[in-house]
């Protein structure tokens, strides 16, 4: 039997997953690490924490599965997108990585828009200047830490730093690279004109490949450290959203995915690049060769529920620990006791600013419409509804871009809750299909590794064999009127609170 390994370098931890060639999960291991917030709106991590989690994860899945390292035919890498990793000539990390949800780069975004122009930026990179993307972070380092900027030999994305550690090769691939805002997504290569206009040396960028291409092989040193076989191929891989989409079978136009992770995403594959002229939806290269994708992003999806749990749920956390119940199961059960519409509370999930449909790093979150009748259950439900309304904003924009919608597949930690799935279906007004691929991004890049290793003919071929629809959640037609009204209130709120 042949096996494939997927590494998914997330925000809260790295998941290592081993699959057989039929896509069955053999063994997984997850190891966590810290996120640092030196100032409000800043977010950083130590890249060597990611590497340590990868080494532990690889060793754990090989040891516990009993699979021979020589039977692992390929490794795929996925990870949080947009993070800036600075590496010097000795391949050492210069400073902590500034990660995807960091919002410090507003001035740099204004500068990019001034120099390049908003329309031209969207035409080249598929997006307006965004605080979360890598380019604005690089410019921030140039402006604020010139001594660190001078030391730069290469800049890498989080998963591409792990590739460097595994293979000693500097490389990236189109799906993650197009979230850096330096790639021309039309040609699927670095934009010489943009780099020239912003005075950035192209030599600091890694070579860019299609996502299924073998970019390097495991070194002898790493083989000893991890128990992998020397020369195991490592493919390009994909940014977490493109990887998760492949794990969900979103590889051709018509099938949409919505994911409720730390952030929330609505994702659609397209045969040609499609653009929102305001840049409210991201247009990026897909990890499927010759395809693109559009995606809307809610910054604070699962993050909102996690924040609420940490801040207001000490009693519930204690109860869940005593009863041996998952705290999120307990919270979503509480949400189910509240009425649709949360007895008047409307939650705006802007804890880290917002991306879609409001490109606004400064907007703050809110609970609106609170009255004396409200209880804890209402607040929990309002979070599930508020995040779902934000995801509906994303879906509405994608529909406006004339993207065909035949099926919506749902995944991510939040989607494991039957309560949240039902709320999402009711608010979307579409049936949602869950997919068995619970490993999401790790499975997606394992599939890419399988294509690179010659196990599958193509990404589409692999997904047709591996990814199967599971449970179907139908929307409750009786709630259409209620949610239409609350959605109108939700949409009217941003213009009223954005300057607070």
Automatic annotation (TrEMBL):
InterPro entries associated with the record: ATPase_NBD (IPR043129), Carb_kinase_FGGY (IPR000577), Carb_kinase_FGGY_CS (IPR018483), FGGY_C (IPR018485), FGGY_Carb_Kinase (IPR050406), FGGY_N (IPR018484), Xylulokinase (IPR006000)
Residues that hold substrate according to the record: 81-82
Carbohydrate kinase FGGY C-terminal domain span: 258-452
Pfam families xrefs: FGGY_C, FGGY_N
EC number from the UniProt entry: 2.7.1.17
Keyword annotations from UniProtKB, A to Z: ATP-binding, Carbohydrate metabolism, Kinase, Nucleotide-binding, Transferase, Xylose metabolism
Alphabetical GO biological process terms: D-xylose metabolic process; xylulose catabolic process
HAMAP family, per the entry: XylB (MF_02220)
Record function comment: Catalyzes the phosphorylation of D-xylulose to D-xylulose 5-phosphate.
Stated name of the protein: Xylulose kinase
């Amino acid at each position: 039997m042949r096996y494939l390994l997927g590494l998914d370098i997330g925000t809260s931890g790295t998941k290592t997953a081993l699959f057989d060639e039929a896509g069955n999960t053999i063994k997984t291991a997850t190891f966590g690490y810290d996120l640092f917030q030196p100032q409000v709106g800043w977010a950083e991590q130590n890249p060597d924490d990611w590497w340590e989690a990868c080494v532990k994860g690889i060793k754990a899945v090989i040891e516990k599965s009993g699979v021979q390292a020589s039977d692992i035919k390929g490794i795929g890498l996925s990870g949080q997108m947009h993070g800036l990793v600075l590496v010097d000539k000795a391949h050492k990390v210069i400073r902590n990585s500034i990660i995807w949800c960091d919002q410090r780069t507003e001035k740099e975004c204004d500068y990019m828009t001034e120099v390049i122009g908003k329309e031209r930026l969207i035409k080249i990179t598929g997006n307006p200047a965004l605080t979360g993307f890598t380019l604005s972070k690089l410019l921030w380092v140039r402006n604020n830490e010139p001594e660190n900027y001078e030391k730069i030999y290469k800049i890498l994305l989080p998963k591409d730093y792990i590739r460097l550690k595994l293979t000693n090769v500097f490389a990236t691939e189109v799906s993650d690279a197009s979230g850096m805002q330096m790639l021309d997504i039309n040609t699927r290569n670095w934009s010489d004109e943009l780099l020239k206009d912003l005075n950035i040396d192209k030599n600091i960028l890694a070579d860019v490949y299609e996502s299924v291409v073998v970019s390097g092989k495991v070194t002898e040193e790493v083989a000893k450290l991890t128990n992998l076989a020397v020369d195991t191929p490592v493919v390009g891989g994909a940014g977490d959203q493109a990887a998760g989409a492949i794990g969900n079978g979103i590889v051709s136009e018509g099938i949409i995915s919505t994911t409720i992770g730390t952030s929330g995403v609505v994702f659609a594959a397209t045969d040609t690049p499609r653009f929102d002229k305001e840049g409210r939806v991201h247009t990026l290269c897909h990890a499927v060769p010759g395809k693109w994708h559009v995606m809307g992003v809610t910054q604070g999806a699962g993050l909102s529920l996690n924040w609420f749990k940490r801040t207001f749920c000490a009693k519930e956390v204690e109860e869940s620990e005593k009863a041996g119940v998952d705290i999120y199961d307990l919270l979503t059960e509480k949400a189910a006791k509240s009425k649709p519409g949360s007895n008047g509370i409307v939650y705006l999930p802007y804890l880290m600013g917002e991306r879609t449909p409001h490109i606004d790093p400064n907007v703050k979150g809110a609970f609106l419409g609170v009255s004396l009748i409200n209880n804890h259950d209402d607040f929990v439900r309002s979070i599930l509804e508020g995040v779902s309304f934000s995801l509906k904003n994303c879906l509405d924009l994608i529909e406006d871009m004339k993207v065909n919608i035949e099926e919506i597949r749902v995944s991510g930690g939040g989607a494991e809750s039957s309560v949240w799935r039902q709320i999402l279906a009711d608010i979307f007004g579409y049936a949602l299909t869950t997919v068995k691929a619970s490993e999401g991004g790790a499975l997606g890049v394992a599939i890419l590794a399988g294509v690179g290793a010659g196990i599958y003919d193509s990404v589409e071929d692999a997904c047709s064999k591996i990814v199967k629809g599971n449970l179907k959640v139908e929307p409750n037609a009786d709630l259409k009127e209620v949610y239409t009204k609350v959605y109108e209130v939700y949409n009217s709120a941003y213009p009223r609170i954005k300057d607070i």
